[in-house]
Structure formats: C-alpha cells, structure tokens
Fold:
Amino acid sequence: MGSASLIVLLIIAIAFAVVAVYIGRIFGTSSTNSVKGEPYECGIETKGETWVQFHIGYYLFALLFLVFDVEIVFLFPWATVIRELGVVALVEIFFFTLFLFLGLLYAYKKKALSWM
Amino acid sequence: MDIQILYKSGLIIVILLLSLVIAMYATLAERKIAGFFQDRLGPNRAGIFGLLQPVADGVKLFFKEEFMPATADKFLYVLGPSLTMLIALLGSAVIPWGNTLVIGNNVFPLQVADVNIGVLYVFAVTSIGVYGIMIGGWSSNNKYALMGAVRAASQMISYELAMGMALIAIVMMSGSLSLHDIVAQQHGIHWNVWYQPIGFFVFVICAFAETNRTPFDLPECDSELIGGYHTEYSSMKLGFYLFSEYINMFISSAMIASLYFGGYNFPFLHELGMSHNWLTIVGTFVLFAKIGFFMFLFMWVRWTLPRFRYDQLMRFGWKVLLPLAIVNIVATGVIYELFKK
Structure:
C-alpha cells in the first residue's frame, strides 16, 4: 500500500510538472533576435567558454561529502536497533565515529576545510 | 479495499493542492512580513489585503515569454526546473498530517504513505533537489548561473551531512525510521526537542541551508551573481524555481514540527474528552499551527540577518555543525545507556 501510493504520487507530480511547463509555452508570447539569445551578464558581452573547469575546492568538498555520507548510511541501521544492542554496539560505534572524526581532523589539519 | 484506494488517491491530490496553495500564500505572507519588518505596507492592490496577489503573479508568469538562451542545452534547460518542482512535490508523501479518522469499520490514516523508511525517504528526496538546481544552472550556459549552481551543490551537500547526523540522533531516540512512529512516540509534551536540543538547532540551521534561504542564499545572491542559478530563466520555469523554494520551506517546516515538536500531538490531548475523530481534526490544526510558526521563522530570519560569505558558510558547516552533530550522536548514545528506562 505504502509504495503504491508513492508511485501514484510520483506519476501525478510528473504530470503536473510537465503540464505546467507546456502551459507556459502555449500562453506565452515569443520573439527572437540575434542579441536576445546571448547569455545575460549585465550587458557586458560574455568572454570565452562557460563550460570550463571550475574551482578545485568544490571537488574537495564533494570527496569529503562522500566519505561522511557513507558513514551516515552505516549509522542508520545501527540507530534503529540501538535499544536492543546495548553497550557493546555503543562502544563499537564510538570507535567508528572516532575514526571518522580523526578523518575530519586530518582534513582540517590539511586545510581542506578552509575555503581558498 | 476499494474505498481505501479511492481515499488514498483523494488524499494525494488534496495534499498536493494544499502544498501548492500554501506555497502560493507563503509568497504573499513573505512580502507582507517583509513590509512589516521594513515599516511599509507590502502588496495591497490585488484584492483585499492583497489576497489575490499570488493569483496575479501566477497568471503573469504563465503569460510571460518562454525564453531560452541560444547556447543553452535545450533538454537539460527544461529538465532543471521541472525536476526541482517534482522533487518539491514528492516530499509531502510520508509526513503524517494527522492521526487516523475512523468511519464505520474503515480506518483512514491522514498520511499518504506510511513507509517504514520515511525519514530516509525525505532525506533522499531532498538530496535529489540538488540536481534540479545544478542541471538548471549548468545548462543555461551562463557564467553567473554556473557559479550559483556549483555553490548550491556544494552548500547543499555540506549541510546535508549535519542534517543526516541530527536525524540519526532522532532515530536513536525512537528506534524507528517511520515518521508515523516517531510522531506517535512524542505524545503529550514528550517532544523530541526537549531531549534533542542540539540536534534541533543543527537540523533547523541545515533546513535553512537546504532550502537556500537567507542567510544561506548564496546560490542566488542577487548582488553578486545577478540571479544565481536561475539568471537565464523566465516565465513559468522561473516560477517553478521560486515556487519550489516555498514548497520546500513548507515541507521543511512540517518535518521540523513532526520530528521535534510532536507533529499533531499537543499537551493534555486526552484530557479534552473528545472523540477520536475530533481529536484527529484538532491535532491536524495544531500541526498546521506549528508549521505556520516555523514558516514565519524562515521569513523572520530572512528579513533580519544578512547573508554569509562563502568561506564563512563552508567553515560553519564543516567545522561547527558537523562535529557538533557527531558529538550529539555519541552523547545521545551514552545518555541513553545511562538513563535507560
């Protein structure tokens, strides 16, 4: 029942998004000229390519994100059953988070967390 | 079983429409509140108190020109806003809007889908939200839009971590990933906020960052990036981006209310001596009052605080919120073991 309703919701939401995009296309006016299609950068002509390599800092944060996101994935099942598992699981997870905390400290030390 | 299917379909449509209408009027509320904070009137021309303003805005957006930059990636340019809207609408599915209504032998839960991984579902849906912004900003082929998009992606993934950690502490408290169970356990005044104050603060701050609201609105900071990721968008596609921000705000407020403020529960619920169905209805109104308060908080903060600088934003997310959330998990575990009931 639960997932069936989710699928129905998904279908309705997709239909809404598609229809609303196309309604705009029907009612809107349209006109074109050669300047209009250019990227809007406050009136100054755009220089060079847009789709180029961007700042390495974003990649660093993406990598760090992956590490901690995987950690969260491991923590969810533990968190749901902590009541039955008791102290042993708590100690284990303490070391687990400690190692990741050390990882965070390492990134901190290497200045990966400070924006350049 | 047929009546249940009919009821579910009806509920889905009602909740979708409700979140759209609430988002519409949230735009008006935002402008009215901005007016109040800045000692001016706010919109008051369309209808009484400007009540028709959101309708006028919506109609205007539909009749505006559909513009597409000549150098944009055509398919992704349309996909971006649609995906953002789609994701915003999906979030409402697992939130329990109220307890159950009992009519005859049929029990009608006021929740679209009581999936046993409700918390994970919301978490997953909000993280897909990054794609809508990233795709839209990248496909516009505009430097400012691209900058806004990478900022959005970087910011949202950074704050998602602390948000997930705050959620884990909640899951530890309740031992279930189902939002229905989490809300049901906070009966009376046993709200999670009293047991998880740190988690609550982390979660609320992350909710601000995930919805790209001030002081975390760097993806669209208009004084540096023109319009940020939606610079090149017009008509209803722009409307989708702006609108989904309000829907996300509504869903986030509902999540905060359900996870930390007991959802539809309120103190002395059973002392009222009302029948089950009436209690459910009153509970739903209480939930919406809580949601309204948090939506007001979103707007209050927006018109009070200035925007972060980008390095401050990253420093705060990684060096303050994330360690705080990890410590919160360990502390929750230790305190739980010490004071086990």
In short: Chain A touches chain B through 65 residues (CB under 8 Å).
